[in-house]
Design goal:
Among the domains are: 50 residues, no CATH class; 91 residues, Phosphorylase Kinase, domain 1 (2-Layer Sandwich); 189 residues, Transferase(Phosphotransferase) domain 1 (Transferase(Phosphotransferase), domain 1, Orthogonal Bundle), CATH 1.10.510.10; 84 residues, Tetratricopeptide repeat domain (Serine Threonine Protein Phosphatase 5, Tetratricopeptide repeat), CATH 1.25.40. Helices cover 60% and strands 8% of the residues. It contains 27 helices and eleven strands. Strand 3 and strand 4 form a beta hairpin. The longest helix has 25 residues.
Length: 661
């Protein structure tokens, strides 16, 4: 028997074996192969490939006996096959063009010639039936279907000239909101399929193509499941449920458990994790398929912000992804529509459902949304924040021995007077329309730009405050704009070299936090050099070292990263004063080490920061909770699950008290 004939015969036996009951397959194969050891080895290889295809559905490709080029030029229905696009475990896909006067392209899929069993043909027909059910702008639609002269099923679907969604986002340089909008459109398509009782269960970048017009298209329903399937069809989809893709498959797929619409929630969550953070779930810890299977069934993915070092993912997006990627389907979003709603809430700066709606969280979101029916009351809140920031700034300047107490007091009054005028101009009781905090900040910035405040130094101080408040509202472009104006004013003022350097450091931190880490590093290096020339060894020197070290750690940690962290911490400790700057520096170094997998080195730092935050007390409860949480994460990374659980429970209890739940 030739090698080609042996492979063909091996495929026949393998396919026929799939139609047997699992407990009868080995006996069937032994009988079919008789004494032909080579044939038996070929069938065994196919069985191994089939097992491997549980992770990569192309596992059978290496044993294909049909050359796709043999099909080129063939006419199926109204389409001539003109180009081979790809091959999968079940079928071969071609680009087809209409043979009549209509100009139309299609993706034509033919079941593999080698897959002759009733089971294989039935699975292929299920995919075709799934497409026939679906009608949505973001789902490639079925155009035609039939059977070849040799009895092989085929179908033609809409040809999508697009790019996988991850590559599209990167090539177009899309920001986070634009990526979220694509995810919302994908959610709408998947939800439409769910309404037709079809679960896709293979959502990954290569199955979501984005057209030149920016429209995402969901393709490849090859392992889709019908929720209303008849018993026979249900068996087929259950078998297909053993097929899945690493980094996107839900735990229940790995374990062979019941698949539901929640499986697609997980798939979209994994895809969102990838395109928002640039990392895949469990990517750093999985080198083999077995690694992934073990991790995904026993662990929840790490937070996207922690894995990627992108601080703008912290908060709502981390919480959304965590909920979508929960191990238990019951803990995920109840539907893809609910997931889409939370993505929409992020864009609209409304509260998301992925966290407990405590009053602090809701109030923060209310301010971020900035609908202020009583502007004066909101003004008092903002003024108190501004006064705190201004006071901190002035206290720092006193410590710098600038001996300008009177002038600083006058500037503080000027800052408060100016901001009060801005807020009063927005008071509805004085005839103003309903106003937002963002509008007040924008008006204040433009007014300062018009030199209403006579003292440029005071204007720069106000702009620095405005930049800080915009940062607290995650309005990064506005924060950067105010910072740029402040820098220009400081640069013009003799004797303001330190203020300019500190503001330059703030700009670097703003760039880092807004996801522009590479752009931030040269700015921070410039600020570091300036501060070292003006005030070496001071608090500003220590703080800028910590910020620069964080930016370097976000990109690619080196020996310089550790050196800067350690120098900054040493400078702060040498002052023999324990304050939040020191807590922050120690905690940040621990976070950097943890992101590099150095949990044993990170844990003592987090413990030191936690104990110091506890001693400081007062208004530092949030910092205490953060350091506790980071210590627990480090212990978990070290394998000390008992110790980690104990501290996690302390964090949960503390946050319950804060939220009043």
């Amino acid at each position: 028997m030739s090698t080609q004939e042996q492979r063909r015969r091996a495929f026949q036996i393998f396919e026929q074996a799939l139609d047997q009951a699992p407990e009868q397959r080995d006996a069937f194969i032994a009988t079919a192969c008789a004494d032909d050891a080579g044939l038996r080895a070929a069938v065994a290889a196919l069985q191994a490939a089939d097992a491997n295809s549980s992770i990569n559905t192309g596992g059978l490709n290496a044993f294909a006996v049909e050359a796709p080029s043999d099909q080129l030029g063939r006419v199926l229905g109204h389409f001539r096959l003109v180009e081979h696009l790809g091959s999968g475990g079940m079928g071969i896909v071609f680009r087809g063009e209409r043979t009549d006067d209509v100009t139309q392209r299609a993706a034509v899929k033919i079941v593999r010639q080698e897959l002759r069993s009733a089971t294989s043909r039935a699975r292929f027909n299920l995919e075709r039936a799934a497409l026939a059910r679906l009608e949505h702008a973001s789902i490639a639609r079925l155009i035609d279907a039939g059977v070849t002269d040799q009895g092989r099923p085929w179908y033609a679907m809409e040809f999508v000239a697009g790019t996988p969604i991850d590559k599209y986002c990167d090539a177009q340089g899309l920001d986070v909101p634009a990526r979220i909008r694509l995810l919302i459109e994908l959610c709408k398509a998947v939800e439409s399929a769910h309404r037709q009782l079809v679960v896709h269960r293979d959502i990954k970048p290569s199955n979501v193509l984005v057209t030149a017009d920016g429209v995402p298209k969901l393709i490849d329903f090859g392992i889709a499941k019908f929720l209303d399937a008849e018993p026979d069809a249900a068996g087929l989809t259950r078998d297909a449920g053993t097929l899945f893709s690493r980094h996107y498959a839900a735990p229940e797929q790995i374990k062979g458990e019941e698949v539901s619409t929640s499986t697609d929630v997980y798939g979209i969550g994994a895809l969102a994790f990838h395109i928002l953070s640039g990392k895949k779930i469990f990517e750093a810890s999985t080198r083999t398929d077995h690694d992934y299977m073990m991790l995904v069934t026993q662990n929840d993915p790490e937070l996207a912000s922690r894995v990627s070092g992108q601080m703008h993912l912290r908060g709502d997006l981390d919480n959304i992804l965590r909920k979508a990627l929960a191990r238990s389907p019951a803990d995920r979003y109840g539907s893809v529509a609910a997931l889409a709603d939370d993505f929409q809430n992020v864009l609209a700066q409304r509260p998301v459902s992925a966290v407990a709606p405590g009053w602090i969280y809701l109030t923060k979101k209310f301010i971020r949304r900035n609908r202020l029916p009583v502007a004066l009351a909101a003004g008092l809140v903002v003024v108190s924040v501004v006064a705190t920031l201004s006071g901190m700034s002035q206290a720092r300047e006193v410590l710098e021995q600038r001996n300008e107490a009177r002038r600083e007091a006058g500037r503080a009054n000027a800052i408060n007077d100016f901001l009060l005028r801005m807020l009063e101009s927005s008071d509805p009781r004085l005839g103003a329309r309903e106003t937002t905090v963002a509008q007040v900040l924008d008006k204040a910035t433009s007014t300062l730009d018009s030199t209403v405040v006579s003292d440029p130094y005071t204007s720069a101080s106000i702009l620095t405050t405005i930049s800080g408040v915009n940062l607290s509202l995650t309005r990064f472009p506005e924060a950067l704009a105010a910072n740029e104006l402040a820098l220009a004013l400081y640069k013009q003022q003799p004797g303001s070299e330190l203020e300019y350097a500190v503001a330059l450091g703030s700009r670097g931190e703003l760039l880092r936090m807004s996801g522009k880490g590479e752009e931030a590093i040269p700015v921070l290096r410039d600020a570091h050099t300036r501060i070292e020339e003006i005030a070496p060894g001071g608090a500003e020197s220590a703080v800028i070292k910590n910020i620069l070290a964080k930016a370097l750690s976000d990109q690619q940690p080196t020996e310089e990263t550790d050196r800067l962290f350690l120098q900054g911490i040493a400078q702060l400790k040498s002052a023999d004063i324990q304050n939040m700057d020191l807590v922050t520096a120690i905690n940040d170094y621990g976070v950097s080490l943890g992101m590099r997998g150095r949990f044993a080195d990170a844990a003592p730092l987090h413990r030191e920061a936690m104990e110091m935050a506890g001693r400081l007390g007062g208004e530092n409860k949030a910092a205490l909770d953060d350091t506790r949480n980071n210590l627990a994460s480090a212990l978990e990374g070290m394998g000390d699950l008992v110790g980690a659980e104990k501290i996690f429970l302390q964090v949960i209890e503390a946050r319950k008290q804060v939220l009043g739940v």
